[in-house]
Amino acid sequence: MSAVPFFYDEQIKRFLIQFIRLFSNFQVQFGTGDEAAFRRVPAKYGDISRQAAHVLTKNSENFLNVFPQISCYISNLRYDRDRVQEPNFISKMSIREREWDDNTQSYLTTQGNAFTIERHMPVPYTMVMKVDILSSNTEQKLQLLEQILCLFNPSLEIQSTDNYIDWTSLSAVLLTDTNWTSRSIPVGTETPIDVATLSFELPIWISLPAKVKKLGVVQKIIGGIYDADGNLNVDSIDEWILLSDRAYITPLNWGVLYNGGELTLLRYESTVAGEGEIINYPLELTGTKENWHAFVNMYGELTNGISQVRLLQSDGETEVIGTVAFHPTDDTLLLFTVDTDTIPVNTLTPITAIINPLTAGPGGVLPASSIGQRYLLTENIGSISNIDFSSIPSGATAWKGTGGEDLIAEVNDIIEYDGTEWIVSFDSSESTTIEYISNLATNVQYKWTGSNWVRSYEGEYINGRWSLVL
Amino acid sequence: MPRLSLWKDGAHSNDYQFFDNRIREMFTTGGTGIAVHKYLGPQDQTQTGDATKPDYLNATEENIQDLLFVENRDRKYDPDIHLMRGIYQVADIDFDLSQFGLFLTNDTLFMVFHLNEMVNMLGRKLMAGDVLELQHLKDYHSLDTSVPYALKRYFVIQDAARASEGFSPTWWPHLWRVKCTPLVDAQEYADLLGTIKAGENTDDTLADMLSQLDNNITINDAIIAQAEAEVPQSGYDTSHLYVVPTRDDEINGADGGPADPENIIGPDGSTLVATETTPSKDIVSYLQGDGIPPNGHPVISGIAFTDNPTVGDYVLRLDYLPNRLFRFDGRRWVKVEHARRDNYTPGSNTSQKASFNNNEGNVSLDNATSVPSKQGLSQGAKNRNKTT
User: Fold this and answer.
1) What are the tens digits of pLDDT across the range A402-457?
2) Smallest Cβ distance to A21: which of B46, B69, B345?
3) Do B237 and A164 touch (CB under 8 A)?
C-alpha cells in the first residue's frame, strides 16, 4: 500500500507566527515621573510542552514567573462553509523571474526562468485565536489593553507569506470578544492571577501544493465568460457553441503573417492587402513591423528550433505546428519550420503551376502539353460562342487539342491535359466544398474555400488564432 | 485565697512573659531562617496631576499609591535584610502548566512567626507585600551548571493574621501567621529584584538569574525574527520577478507594446543600449510598492530629480511620504509606484496607525515653546488652567 506523498507547508503555523508578531513589542510603564521605566511585554505561544517549560525554569522551583505576559494560542479551527467557492477551480498565473547569477548570487536585470503556476482552490477555515493577557495590577492591564484594542477597527491585516503567487497569504485578524478578567469579583480568600482574554478570528485558507511548470504561453483567452448582467454565460460552458461564438483575445491583440517559411508579427491594425483573393508573392502589408525579440521577451525565452508556433485553422480544431527560430538578421521575422504532419492533406491532385492562360500557354511560356499537366487558372479562357466549328481558327491556339478542340475554362478552374486535349478537371463554379491542393512549382498548398483559392495555412492569423509555445 | 487565673485583666502578666519566652525559644530551637525584605511603602510619585495618585509627604507602609484601583504597584523595599525564624509545614508542590508557563499555584505556605520577636526585629508585624527568602530552599543544583551560586527561593506575603494555635492559656497571642505565595517578577517587586544580588561573588541580580523574563523575551524575539523572515514587509516581494519593459514613453511610442530590448530611442534621437531599456511600470498588487525599480535597475534616492536624465532613469523621491518612485520617459518624470510596503512588527512600521503612536517628535509653537506631538486625546490642546 503506497503512502500519501508527504506535504507540509506550515500554513497554519505561519499564520500563528504572524499572529504572535502582532502582539509583540508592547510595553508597560513601571514607576512614575523620573523613575518611570518601560518593560517590554513578552508574547509567546500558550500551549507549550511541560518538558520544555521545566527546561526554562532550569529544573528548579525557585524561578520567578513574569508579569505581565501575553500568551497566544489556537482555540479552534473551524471549517468555514460560507466562504466555500468552486472547489475544482484551478487558477493559473504566469511569472518570470530575473536571471540569477550563480557567481554573484544575485539577480540580474535580464529575464530568467519563466513559470506557469497552477493553484488549486484552497479550503476556507476560520482560525479562532485567544490572547491571554496576564497582569499583576489593574493599571498594567489597562495600559496593555488600551494599546492593543485601538488597533482593531475592526481588524488588522495579517500575511502568512509575502510570496507573490500565494493567494492564501492575506487574511485579517478580527476581534470578536473580550473577557475582562479570569477572576471573580469579589475575589475571596484565594489569590488567583488576573488574565484578560481577547478572542480573535482569522479567515484563512489551507491549500494544496501548487503546480510549478515551465511557462508555455497559449495566448487564447475565452472572452465574455459573464454576460452584461454578471451571470455566467452558458456559451462558455457549452463547448460546441464556443466553436462558433468564442471570442479570442491575444495580449496586445497582435497577429502573425505566415509567408514563405517566415512569420511576421503584425499589429492588430495591420492587414493583408487583397485579403480573400489569391495571394501573390510577395505580400503587401500596411502598418509597422514589430520586433519578435521584444514580444517574446514578454513571455520568456525562445529556444531556436524547439519553441513552437501553432496556427489555428479555420475549422477551429486543427493546428498547423512548426518550430521557430529568430531570423539571423531581421528581428521582425521568425523562421518557421512547419511540421508536415500537421498540414492539411491534399484532396486534389497537385497542380503544375498557377498561370494566366491569356498570357501563357503550352509550347510557349509553358512546356509543351503532356499528360498529367495541371494548371490553376487566374483568368477566364475561351467561350461557348467562340468554339471553332469552322475552318477559321477562333479559340486560343496554344490550348487547342490534337483534334483542334478549344479550351473553355473560367478563373479558379483547374485544367488538365489528357493526352489529346485540355479539359476542366476542377470546375470552380460547381464545387462548394473545402479542397486542398499543392502547387508543385512553389510547394505552396492552397485551399478552395468554395468561392476562391487562398493559401491553405499560410497567411494572416489574427489575434487568438495563433499561439506561441516557448 | 485568691482565685487562680491566668487572665490578669488585660495585663501582660509574668505568666504571659513565661509563655512568650518559651515560645520564642521554640522558634530559636526549631524554626527555619527567614530573610525578610521589609515593605516600606509605595515609591514616591510626584506631580502626577491625578488626585487618585497622591504625592505623600511621608513615605510609609500606610500610603496607597492608587486610590482608584487601591493598589500599590511600585513598591519600595528596605535594603536591609531582617533575619527571623519561622515555622511552617513543608508540603509537596505541583507544577501547573499554564498558558504562561509553569506556575506553582498550590505552593502556598502558611508560616508562623513569633509576634514579639517579629515586632522587635521589624518594628511592625509582617504584612502583605513583605518578601521572604526561605534560606533552606536554596537550590544548589540548577540545570545550568555554569551558575556559580545557589538559586534562592522567595515568597511574598499575601495575608497575615494571628495564628489560632498561637494563643497561650493567658489568652494573649504569641504567633503571627502569614500566607505566602511564590514571588513573581512583576512591577510590584522591581525595586527588590533589581537590587538584590543573586548570590555571593556575583553582580547578577535576582531578576537576572531567577526571572523568566529573559527566556520569554528570547522566545518572543525568535518568533519575531522568523515572522520577519517570512514576511519582511506587507504586500508581496516581487523584486526577483521580471517585468517586461513596454513602450510607454512618448519618444518610443506610448502604445503599451513591448519595448525593443536592444534598441530604444533616447531624447536626443540616439539609440540607447539594452540596459537602458527599463520598465515604466512595476507589478501591481495589494499593498505593493517597495520603491525599488522593477528588474533591479539602479535608482538614485533624493529629494530632487537628477539633472540631465536619460530615458529610463529612476529616482526615488524621499520627500514624499510614502516615498515615490519616478521614471524619466524622455520628457517628464512619471510616477511608477509608492513605496508602501512596511514592516508588520508593532513598533517597527510607519503605517498610518503607527504614525500616530510611534511619534516622538515635538511641535514648535509661535511662542518659542514646544509640545510633544503625540498626546492623548484628553490632553492635546487642553485648557492650561486644568491640572488634569
Assistant:
1) 777 888 888 888 989 888 888 888 888 888 888 889 888 888 888 888 888 888 88
2) B345
3) yes
Mutate to test the interface with B, among A15, A61, A62 (most CBs of B within 10 A): A62
pLDDT at A281 over 50: no
Bridge partners (DSSP) listed for residue A417: A422
CB contact under 8 A, A17 and B212: no
The phi-psi region of residue A31 (left if phi > 0; otherwise alpha if psi is between -120 and 50; otherwise beta) is left
Q: Which of B316, B296, B152 is nearest to B238 (CA)?
A: B296
Sort out which chain A residues have CB atoms less than 8 A from B69's CB and list them.
137-139
- Which grid cell is B22? 518559651
Q: How far apart are CA A121 and CA A210, in angstroms?
A: 10
Q: Are strands A69-79 and A43-45 parallel, antiparallel or unpaired?
A: parallel
Which amino acid type is present at position B105? T
Report residue A82: phi and psi, to 5°: -65, -25
Give this complex's ipTM.
Answer: 0.88
Distance CA B10, CA B208 (A): 51
Do residues A351 and A428 make contact, with C-beta atoms less than 8 angstroms apart? no
Q: What is the pLDDT of residues A317-361, one digit of tens each?
A: 788 888 888 888 888 888 998 888 888 888 888 998 888 888 888
Gap from B11 CA to chain A (nearest CA, Å)? 34
Q: Is A328 helix (H, G, I), strand (E, B) or coil?
A: coil
B170: closest CA of chain A, how far (Å)? 30
- Cis, bond preceding A282 (omega within 30 deg of 0): yes
**CA A102 from chain center: how many Å?**
29
Summarize the confidence of residues A366-389 as an average pLDDT.
Answer: 79
Whole-Å CA distances, A79 to A12, A76, A157, A175: 13, 10, 20, 19
- For chain A, helix, strand, coil in percent to 5 are 15, 35, 50
**Distance (Å, rounded) from C-alpha A335 to C-alpha A470?**
14
CA gap A264, A460 in Å, rounded: 9
Residue A143: strand, helix, or coil: helix
DSSP B257: P
**Residue B127: alpha-carbon gap to chain centroid:** 28
**Nearest chain A Cα distance for residue B13, angstroms:** 35
**Taking the model in full, what pTM does it have?**
0.74
- Three-state DSSP at A453 gives strand
- Cα angle for residues A397, A398, A399 (degrees, 5° grid): 90
CA–CA separation, B231 and A450 (whole Å): 63
Residues of B in contact with A64 (CB under 8 A): 154, 182-185, 193, 206-207, 210-212
Looking at the partner chain, which of B101, B207, B230 has a beta carbon nearest the beta carbon of A14? B230
Q: Among A140-154, A240-254, A284-298, A430-444, which is the least confidently predicted range?
A: A240-254
A204-A206-A207 Cα angle (round to 5): 135
Give the mean pLDDT of B364-381.
83
Q: Which residues pair with A351 in a beta bridge?
A: A439
Instruction: Tell me the pairing of strands A308-312 and A466-469.
Output: antiparallel
CB A464 within 8 A of CB A220: yes
Alpha carbon of B138: minimum distance to chain A alpha carbons (Å): 8
Rounded Cα–Cα distance for residues B70 and A187 (Å): 14
Over residues B217-262, the pLDDT tens digits come to 999 999 999 999 999 988 899 889 988 877 766 555 666 666 665 5
Rounded Cα distance between B316 and B192, Å, is 52
Residues 6+ apart with CB under 8 A from B138: A62, B150, B151, B152, B153
Contact (Cβ atoms closer than 8 angstroms) between residue A24 and residue B223: yes
Long-range residue pairs from A401-408, CB within 8 A, at least 24 positions apart, any chain: A406/A382, A407/A357, A407/A381, A407/A382, A408/A381, A408/A382, A408/A383, A408/A384
